[in-house]
Amino acid sequence: MTTYNPPLADINFCIRHLAKMEDILSLDAFEGMGPEDLEQVLEEAGKFASDVVAPTNIPTDQQGCRLEGDEVQVADVLADVHRQFVENGWQAVAGDPEYDGMGLPATIAFATAEMLQSANMAYSLMPMLTRDAVSAIEAHASDELKQQYLSRLTTGEWAATMNLTEPQAGSDLSAVACRAERDGDQFRIRGAKTFITWGDHELSANVIHTVLARIDGAPDGVRGISMFLVPKFLLDENGEPGEKNDVRATALEHKLGIHGSPTAVMNFGDNDGAIGYLIGEENKGLFAMFTMMNHARLEVGLQGVAISERAYQLACSYANDRIQGRVPGQDGKAPIIHHGDVRRMLMLMRSQLEAMRALAYTAASHDDIEHHSTDAAARAAAGTRLSLLTPVVKGWCTETSEQVTSLGIQIHGGMGFVEETGAAQYYRDARILTIYEGTSGIQAGDFAGRKILADEGRELGSLIGELRELCDSMQGDEQLDSIAQGVRGGLDQLESGMNWLIANATASPATMGSASFNLLMLAGTVLGGAYLGKAASIAVSEASSASESFGKAKLATAAFYCAHVLPRAHGYLAAMTSDADLTMAIPADSF
Ligand SMILES: Cc1cc2nc3c(=O)[nH]c(=O)nc-3n(C[C@H](O)[C@H](O)[C@H](O)COP(=O)(O)OP(=O)(O)OC[C@H]3O[C@@H](n4cnc5c(N)ncnc54)[C@H](O)[C@@H]3O)c2cc1C
């Protein structure tokens, strides 16, 4: 079975109760919208994902992409999918109505993105990067650039890319060497970018590149980087794509996964220099790019959720069909789903998937408050919380998706290792998620350094306090008591880890490197468990006859997570607080 059933019950639940859609809809920006309208949008998005996009997942993987002359060709099936995607307005869900967007909450766009990612992750990267570029252009570009480009990008008529990486500048963007030479009001961009997702293609009439480059004479390091908008086709006097700009894809990478996404080497300015327009202030390009990257990081975390969902659905289906061995109390041979060890694996997949979704939607909802609340204090608080949670969503959900998709293969036995079932594709596709948009090591450094040490643990401390109150409210309820105890224990460990970091970060040069990844995994494991526990407590309290089975399943899933996944928090805490010199004990020249 390679079909996709949109998990609307869980998504709607997360949106209603964890993302607190009622609070979001009370904002002026969303006046007149009701929860039922949004559920209707999600139902339609689910149908589009399952009926139109999901059937293209395997053909896209098999056909891949190729460079023919100067043109990048992607899998044939994608042209029709993309046409329908744009025509039906799916790119514009949360777009600003001033630029032809629908103006729905970003949390709703997040949910439509999850379903698109589950349906075909390689394709979903193009709409994702376009959305992210829109956020940077909206926040930082001149009015003239906004008027020229935003509507077409918001609707998806044109696509966008993100050009940071160069051969010598990967995680370390201070090494960016691409040059920008002033030419009147515009710039001539010269240099090569590598690994550019959907760097070029024929699916849209123009491709708008956001590019980091250094204006001649700018300071070295990150303080000398500016951001530019470089269109594939320059606009004519009517604002339509005209003359081809001096930018082209010169090679495509052969990759482990996401074969349907063209990952290009992009050459800017081989001839007269590619014409580019400054976005934001000179030398403040990294600041502008971070608007885009923070959105992208959250959405790459969401890809971890989405690919895990797809792998889980496939594993459930196979476990129900595959007959192998006997189980006590049953006549004849049984489907493998009756074996305890297979159930353990399915529950590990399901419980981590639901914990990831609970965490990701909780985090994403702060975006709407940050951008649309009329209360400045509420905007600031939402921004701080989102900023704390972004590396956890990116780092933990993607690392966990590799385990979940691997379990998906294990449940298939040998059939998981061969390509025929589709389980292997999810594992291959998931493998990029911990690398692009900042590797897990970079997320861990951001979480430990900028989000905890620079803030002296205040924001994480207050989140831990809020979640302890949640545990208090669950304590004493027969069904929820053990979950509350498990989560409380996890929160104690997370607090110990945070306090240890604050006390020891500078104890040895190796401390941050040795501790921060373990701290990030500790935070994800505990916060995911806490939000799953919260979901269970709400599901139980609101259980009506219609939602009784949902509530019972949520409770059982949370209880399993507390028993089988949360104990990993001990291990992460022990590893992060161990002697950092153990990590560096063997000299570099001995490896
Ligand atoms: C399929 C694919 C699509 C991509 N799409 C895009 C795109 O659209 N646009 C774009 O600009 N880029 C894109 N990238 C590039 C991607 O963002 C980089 O590969 C990534 O940021 C890592 O950089 P790197 O590959 O140079 O690895 P390196 O930076 O060389 O890292 C290698 C290892 O060293 C570790 N490391 C490096 N520095 C540190 C440090 N300071 N502290 C701790 N650990 C460190 C890393 O965590 C990693 O484990 C894409 C890459 C791939 C493979």
Oligomeric description of these chains: single chain
Instruction: Please indicate the percent range of residues in DSSP E strands (runs of 2 or more).
Output: 5-15%
Largest beta-sheet characterization? 5 strands, mixed, barrel
What is the 3D form?
globular
Q: What ligands can be seen in this structure?
A: flavin-adenine dinucleotide
Could you give the count of β-strands? Answer: 12
Low-confidence segments: none
Give helix % range: 55-70%
What is the residue-averaged pLDDT? 96
Entry summary:
With 591 residues, the protein is α+β, with helices and mostly antiparallel strands.
Based on the model shown, name its key terms.
591 residues; alpha+beta; five-stranded mixed barrel; 20 helices; 12 strands; 12% strand; binds flavin-adenine dinucleotide
What is the strand and helix layout of this fold?
Layout: H1 8-18, H2 21-25, H3 35-53, H4 57-63, E1 66-68, E2 71-73, H5 78-87, H6 106-119, H7 121-140, H8 143-155, E3 159-163, E4 179-183, E5 186-197, E6 207-215, E7 226-231, E8 233-235, E9 241-244, E10 247-252, E11 263-268, E12 274-279, H9 285-321, H10 340-372, H11 376-411, H12 414-417, H13 423-430, H14 440-453, H15 458-474, H16 481-504, H17 511-541, H18 548-564, H19 568-576, H20 581-584
Parallel strand pairs: 3-6, 4-6
Antiparallel strand pairs: 1-2, 4-5, 5-11, 5-12, 6-7, 7-12, 8-9, 10-11
Helix pairs in contact: 1-10, 1-17, 3-6, 6-7, 6-9, 6-10, 7-8, 7-9, 9-10, 9-11, 9-13, 10-11, 10-17, 10-18, 11-13, 11-14, 11-17, 14-17, 15-16, 16-17, 16-18, 16-19, 17-18, 17-19
Bound molecules: flavin-adenine dinucleotide.
Flavin-adenine dinucleotide binds at residues 162-165, 170-171, 195-197, 255, 263, 432, 435-436, 438-439, 441-442, 445.
